[in-house]
Amino acid sequence: MDNPLIRLADYAASWRTAPMPAEVEHHARRALLDWFAAMLPGCLQPPATLLASALASERGGGGAFCYVDGEAGGIRHAALLNATASHVVEFDDIHRDSGLHPGGPTIAAALAAAQARGASMETLLRAVVAGYEVGGRIGLAIQPSHYRNWHITGTVGTICAAVSTGVVLGLDATRMAHAIATAATMAGGLQQAFRGEGMSKPLHPGHAAEAGALAALAASGGVTGALDVLHGPVGFAAATSEDAGKWDQALAGLGEAVPLITGITFKNHGCCGHIFAALDGLDALRAAHGFGADDVAAIHVGGYGPTKDICDRPEVSTEQQARFSLQYCAGALLVLGGVRVAAFTPERLADPRIRAVMPRVSVSLDPELASAYPARRAARLRVTLTDGRVLDHFQPTRKGDPDAPLTDADLAAKFRELAVPVVGAPPAEALLEALTKGQSLPGRVPLLARARAA
């Protein structure tokens, strides 16, 4: 077997000068727009706000913008805080087949490096494409077993960030390989961090962005890494998955197939993606049969592994727990009409109407759906109504997945919904225009909450 790290590094470095088809650029801009949509509301919430305050004295000089506190600083500082903010409200993108949330670490690190180094929008987009590709393919090599204990956005996301930063820094293939190698040994992120209480989960992409940026900066200065670290007998794949990695499968078509960024899932709900198929199915049933929360006697969801293992949470007390509770999110959908940012305010967490639905919702593992995961994220629903009707529905995919994608209009609407309350309508429109059509990097984006506080 060829060394997968070398092949991935060669590919990543080629994006400094490779032709950029219009379709690929379009999808990279969609990813950038979606990242800002997810990141901006996260700037106003912990742990991003708490982390910015705790690290204020660590800022240092530099031209990278930290959107959380509105100040400029070094690449690593901005990458850490912006990536953390991008994961707070659970609206960030997904590479479905690996389960990776690539945008948080990849874009935060690349944008910070691009701003600090005065790079172009074209360079940023190239960096994003490369980071998504390398991270997604490594994810394919180690999944699904990796996800039993590890949070792939924290682990593989570190390598995504190293690659995207490396493209901005202009690393050649040799130094890119060392950046990947160093990033792999600094990767981390445990499943337990989001199966209980605490604020650690958004720090996973935050750490990944910072550590990946560090790996690329180190490689640019000549620091070397172990080039067999991905596939070696005690390397990354062996340590974090059930074998040394499915590398032949993961690398098939590298450099020849359409880049992975053209098939990214953009979230249509503000919660864990493993709940989405159930929510889409419940919404379809509600639209077809016109029932509300008070009409439901029972909801049963058959899902794939993580839907049961991670999201079967009949009791919740915190915002994070609620975002990972199928019971809570089903109640929010029926009561509020959607699972958006407003569904997780303290008022809604205590809403007796949502709480009343939760005991009526049960979840089980469907072996057929489990065997199709992660390439397919489906759900089977049975809704029993108080009038005795029993409604069955199979939801084969999720709205936002590559086979049911959000349109450009959908994505723009999502951006406005999430950005306007944070920055105001005119600045949001200007940013949308810049991200979708502009040739200059996005810069400072003043937040309304900071303006009011001042």
From TrEMBL:
Domain MmgE/PrpD C-terminal residues, every copy: 269-431
Cited InterPro entries: MmgE/PrpD_sf (IPR036148), MmgE/PrpD_sf_1 (IPR042183), MmgE/PrpD_sf_2 (IPR042188), MmgE_PrpD (IPR005656), MmgE_PrpD_C (IPR045337), MmgE_PrpD_N (IPR045336)
One example GO MF annotation: lyase activity
Coiled coil location: none
One Pfam family cited in the UniProt record for this chain: MmgE_PrpD_N
Domain of life of the native organism: Bacteria
Domain MmgE/PrpD N-terminal, first and last residues per copy: 7-243
PANTHER family referenced in this protein's UniProt entry, alphabetically: 2-METHYLCITRATE DEHYDRATASE (PTHR16943:SF8), 2-METHYLCITRATE DEHYDRATASE-RELATED (PTHR16943)
Similarity remark: Belongs to the PrpD family.
Protein name: MmgE/PrpD family protein
Organism: Falsiroseomonas algicola
Organism lineage string: Bacteria, Pseudomonadati, Pseudomonadota, Alphaproteobacteria, Acetobacterales
